[in-house]
Amino acid sequence: AARVTSRHSSGKLLVDIADITIDNQCDYGDAAVSLPGLAQKAAPLSTIMGATIANSLVLRICELMQQQQRTPPILASANIDGIILQRIITFTYDDKLPGELLLADEFKVARGTIKQAIDSLVSIGMVYREQGKGTFINRDALHKHYTDLPEALVAFNSATPVDVEILSLLSTMANQELAERMGLDLGSQLMRLERLFMQGEKAVGHAVTYLNGRVYNDLSHVDNSGPLYEQLRETFGYSPTKAEERYLPVICDAKLANLLNIAQGCALFRIERTASNLDDVVLEYSITHMQDAALSLQI
Question: Where is the HTH gntR-type domain (predicted)?
Fold first, then answer.
């Protein structure tokens, strides 16, 4: 400000009349990057720094309000209909949606905003209204558009039941490959679940599953009692709803040979799965190896 002159009739700058001034520390002229052959700098930074300062102030105000036992008036996502649809698909609601006033209070928005969100779900047939009774979920329409996604193991049919043995469950960080496959930052938190699939005393498969640690941050309830996705729905309220899979034959390496008690070099069937929710947030990346011709895959 000290290097510019006022264009106002008073001769004053904003800094002269403001009660509080925050220096954004940007270069003079705002632009910050010099390019070869270009006399003027490019890439202004004031927009980025201004947004950072503004959001830092909002965050600090929220912290101070919480210290005073007050609830900050934080705006909810504009994608309320998408959030409600996600809850419907994952059976957060049984057959009926909560009332509009309850939803408005939960999302901290006006009742009219909730009505618009529900109207959009009515328009695609996912819910319907009954005068004086409420808004109900159209399970028939829902079934045509979405079905519960089974985990890879469930796609195999066998006359002999397949049991699951958990080998390890631990927190880890995404390396470069996992970060790229799951659309995460390098070093993001992951939950790594390693399992062995058994038919009686015989090991028929092995899986390593990486779950998005931002979403599934506590898997202490996961055990051998049932399919993984069912347990995720019970604990967190939702599981992956769509997946991309890659199938290919591979040769068994020494580690898998030891786990499956077979000879190194045997043929195995490999499934690589990337599973996500409706918003395309990747929730899982898994690698499953199966053996035994008695298993048939339903695709």
Answer: 70-140
Q: What is the pLDDT of residue 42?
A: 86
pLDDT of residue 102: 94
Is a pLDDT exceeding 80 seen at residue 293? no
Q: Taking a C-beta distance cutoff of 8 angstroms, is the pair 289, 269 a contact?
A: yes
Cβ(192)–Cβ(209) below 8 Å: yes
Give residue 127's pLDDT: 92
Report CA dihedral (68, 73, 77, 80) to the nearest 10 degrees. Answer: 110
For residue 88, the tally of other CB atoms under 10 A from its CB is 19
Find tokens 């909002």 and name the residue. 58
- Write the CA distances from 289 to 90, 99, 137, 153, 242, integer angstroms: 28, 47, 39, 10, 21
Q: What pLDDT does residue 28 have?
A: 80
174 touches 161 (CB < 8 A): no
Q: How confident is the model over 237-250, as a mean pLDDT?
A: 82
Whether residue 91 has pLDDT greater than 80: no
Q: Are 207 and 152 in contact (CB under 8 A)?
A: yes
3-state secondary structure the chain: CCCCCCCCCCCCCHHHHCCCCCCCCCCCCCEEECCCCCCCCEEECHHHHHHHHHHHHHHHHHHHHHHCCCCCCCCCCCCHHHHHHHHHHCCCCCCECCCHHHHHHHHCCCHHHHHHHHHHHHHCCCEEEECCCEEEECHHHHHHHCCCCCCHHHHEECCCCCEEEEEEEEEEECCHHHHHHHCCCCCCEEEEEEEEEEECCEEEEEEEEEEECCCCCCCCCCCCCCCHHHHHHHHHCCCCCEEEEEEEEEECCHHHHHHHCCCCCCEEEEEEEEEECCCCCEEEEEEEEECCCCCEECC
